[in-house]
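QA checklist item 7 of 12: single-chain prediction sanity check.
[x] sequence parsed
[x] length recorded as 337
[x] structure emitted
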Amino acid sequence: MALVVYCSSDEQWSFAEQTTWGTAVGDAAASIGILTEGFGLDSQINFRNPPRARAQRYQHYSDVRADQKGVVYQTNGMAVPAAHELLDMFLYGVMQNVVESTLEAGVHRKTFTFGATQPDFTAHAGEFFTLWGDSGVASNDQKMYDAIISELTLTCAPGANEGILWVAPTFIARSHSDTANYTGTATFATTGAAEEYNFYDIITATLSSAVVLGDNGISITIRNGARKVGQATGVPQTFALPRYEVELSIHCLWDSAIRTLMASAKADTAVTFEFEWGTAGAVGHLEFTGTGEISQAVNIEHGLEGNFCTVNILCSGLYGTTEPFQVILTSNNDRVW
C-alpha cells in the first residue's frame, strides 16, 4: 500500500485583510504568505460530561455534549522574520491604531500608537484577518477568520535568528474550519538586507541615555488584553481590548549609564527609550519609542564594569500628553489605511 506522508514543510500559511466582520475572505482570494512552518493552530471543542444520576453506572449519551460554542481559536509558536510586508500588518493587528502618510512617491510611513477607544470591528474599525493553512490536499485546509492579534513579541539578538529582528504574533479568532479548500495565490514577503532589520544595523539604542547592547539583545512584547465578549449564533460577538501593555527586556553593558538609570528608578523617575534602524523618512526606517518604569531591580554579580545586565521596563504614559509606546515603520507599501 502506498503511503503519502506530509510534514509542515509541505504547508503554506497565509492571511488576508478581512473587510466584513463575521464574513470570511473567500478561499480563492489572494493572500500574504507567512514565512513560517510548524506552528500550531489546533481544532478545539467544548466537551461537557456532567454527572446525572440515571440508575446506571455510566454516563447516558444524552448527558454528553461536544461542540465549539464560545471557543476562541489561537495560533501557537508562529515566528517569522520581521520583513516590511509582514511587520506593518502585524503591528496594526495588535495595536489597532495607525496613521499612514505618503512622504514621497513610493515612500509610506505608518505610525502605530494605542487608540484611546475600543475599535468596533463590526463597523470595520481596526484591523482583522482571515488566515489559511494550506495543506496541499483539497478540502483539508485550516481556516480561521474574524482574527486579530492579541500579543506580538519582537526579538533581536546577534546570536539568534541570523541576527535579524524576529516577530512572533499570536492570532486569535472567533471561527475555524478544518475542511477549507484554499485555491488563491499567496505572495510571500520579500526578504533580504533591505527588508529586514539586523542587530548590527541598530543606529539608536537609548534608555534615557545611550546604552551598549549585549548578546541577548532586545525583546519587546506588545499585548492588548483581548478577551471575548457577547454571544451570537454559537460564537462570541467580538473582542474587547481592555488594557494595552508593553514589556521590554534589554541586555546591555553595566556602565555609568545603567548606574544612573538605577538611581533614577529608585527616585521613581520614568525612563525614556528608543531603538531605531535606518533613516527617518526613508524606506527601511523602523523606530520604537516610549516611556516606562523599570519593573525589576538590575542585579549583577560583582557589578564589575564591562559585565552585562538585563533591564526590564513596563511602559506607562500620562493620559493626553505622553505616548507610552509608539512604532514608526517606513516602507514602500501603500496600505491605504
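[x] summary fact logged: Residues 84-95 form the longest helix (12 residues).
[ ] second reviewer sign-off
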